[in-house]
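Workshop exercise sheet. Pairs work together: one partner reads the sequence aloud, the other fills in the structure field after running the prediction. Swap roles for the next sheet.
Pair: D.N. / O.F.
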Amino acid sequence: MYDSVTPSIGVEMDTFVGGNDPGAGQHVAVLSNGDVANHITWDPAPFEFTAVPETHVWIDYDGNTNTLTAYFAMTDTKPAEPQLTATLDIPGDVGSQVYLGFTGSTGQFFARQRITDFSFRVWD
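Structure field:
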């Protein structure tokens, strides 16, 4: 569970409506320091995540502009515009050593959460 993981930055795909959620329904958000109650930015989900067989996600971070962008699609074609954009100084907020990971939770229901492909690139 992401709650209380600090220091950290998280991109949330929330399929369960809970007490810490902004607005109503499924949503995507950027979180920091394990704080699931305060979203840095959020937007309603671009489609119902639980109604499609898979969701494709791209998360980009530009260290020159301190901009994190997240894209979500039902196909393997990256959308032209991001669903989420947040200004974050990740090296300043998290530090020089980082760990990358995934977590999943379903609230009161069952949902299969599976990573089928993953790549990580760093550009100097």
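Discussion prompt: The helical segments are 90-94. What would you look at next?
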